[in-house]
Design goal:
Structural class: alpha/beta
Oligomer: single chain
InterPro entries: Cys_Synth/Cystath_Beta-Synth, P-phosphate_BS, TrpB-like_PALP, TrpB-like_PALP_sf
CATH topology of the largest domain: Rossmann fold
Low-confidence stretches: none
Helix content: 40-55%
Largest sheet: 6 strands, mixed
Strand content: 15-25%
Keywords: Amino-acid biosynthesis, Pyridoxal phosphate, Transferase, Transit peptide
Order of helices and strands: EHEHEHEHEHEHEHEHEHHEHH
Cofactor: pyridoxal 5'-phosphate
Protein name: Cysteine synthase A
CATH architecture of the largest domain: 3-Layer(aba) Sandwich
Radius of gyration: 19 Å
GO molecular function: transferase activity, transferring alkyl or aryl (other than methyl) groups
Shape: globular
Number of strands: 10
Mean pLDDT: 96
Strand order of the largest sheet: 1-2-10-7-8-9
Number of domains: 2
């Protein structure tokens, strides 16, 4: 067994995450389904990559000066990534979050030393939306930059350069499909563009939760939302700058119930404690794998993103009372 590589800098711990063959999903799909273990990043989510990419880009452009402040609006994980990177580089952090996100994310941000501002959840068209609030705070704060993860294409660029390249190398150039959900769009667009540069025949699929509008956009050309989802950090109602030109070949819509079923199975059968976005991604990967099998592709291989750790949702999807209040199925072991 090869020993892990020595790192010269703590920020080098971001990325180069393991890729694992998921047994249950592979059996369900009739092909090989792989999960990119983004929970292995220092901030326990895929958003560490965007945080590092955005901050390094701001430094290179001269916008972020020593001792400066980074302001961002986020469902939580990007804020956690920014706070960790900012601490390592000597910056301050102000994070704006909707107040309906998990308590664990809020507690984590405060523990990391970030200044946390919470606002009521509202539509993007509302001037008090968390994204607009974070932009105003950045404008009002001396020495601050606005990370702007949704429309800052440094987010997408880091996935082209790192996540896609890692997947291609880890799968030895034998990858038939990739899918994940979209929040900012940086991951799906960046990985899609990066993988297509290696092989145009790799099928890129959007996996959208209910309540988001991108499924209908890519299927019918119209931004139209149906239903709702409790998943945090995914689901989008507009075409962000990161999503512009994303090479989406097909799309799937996945319910919270189906995503939670895979969250439960991956924990009970494979020992992976994940968030709901990961469960939705895995369900989408199975749908993509089945599609490729039905088309006659020989032993297709599909990859997806295991976005973050389930320990970030102990008060929500791993809490029986919370699930019951939302009308969602309670994991069997939580009922005992």
């Amino acid at each position: 067994m090869t020993a892990p590589q020595l790192r010269d800098d703590t920020l080098e711990l971001i990325g180069n995450t393991p890729l694992v063959l998921l047994q249950g999903p592979s059996e369900a799909a009739g092909c090989e389904i792989y999960g990119k273990c983004e929970f292995a990043n220092p901030g326990a989510s895929v958003k560490d990559r965007a945080a590092l990419g955005i901050i390094r880009d701001a430094e290179a452009r001269g916008d972020l000066k020593p001792g400066g402040t980074i302001v961002e609006g986020t469902a939580g994980n990007t804020g956690i990534g920014i706070a960790l990177v900012a601490n390592a580089l000597g910056y301050k952090t102000i994070i704006v979050m909707p107040d309906n996100q998990s308590k664990e994310k809020m507690d984590t941000l405060r523990a990391l030393g970030a200044q946390l501002v919470t606002v009521p959840p509202t539509k993007f068209s509302d001037c008090n939306h968390f994204v607009h609030t974070s932009r105003r705070l950045a404008e009002e704060t001396d020495g601050a930059i606005w990370a702007n993860q949704f429309d800052n294409t440094a987010n997408r660029k880091v996935h082209i350069e790192t996540t896609a390249a890692e997947l291609w190398e880890q799968m030895e150039g034998r990858i038939d499909g990739f899918t994940c959900a979209a929040g900012t769009g940086g991951t799906i667009a960046g990985v899609g563009l990066g993988l297509k540069a290696f092989d145009e025949d790799i099928r890129i699929a959007l996996t959208d939760p209910h309540g988001a509008a991108l499924y209908s956009y890519f299927a019918e050309g119209e931004l139209k939302a149906e239903g709702s989802s409790v998943a945090e950090g995914i689901g989008q109602g507009r075409i962000t700058a990161n999503l512009e030109g994303a090479p989406i070949d097909t799309q799937f819509r996945i319910s919270d119930e189906e995503g939670l079923d895979w969250v439960a199975r991956l924990l009970r059968e494979e020992g992976l404690c994940l968030g709901l976005s990961s469960g939705i991604n895995v369900a989408g990967a199975i749908a993509l794998g089945r599609q490729l099998v039905e088309e006659g592709r020989e032993k297709p291989r599909v990859a997806t993103i295991l976005c973050d750790t389930g320990f970030r949702y102990l008060s929500t999807i791993y809490n029986a009372d919370w699930l019951e209040a939302k009308g969602l199925p309670v994991f069997e072991w939580l009922r005992d």
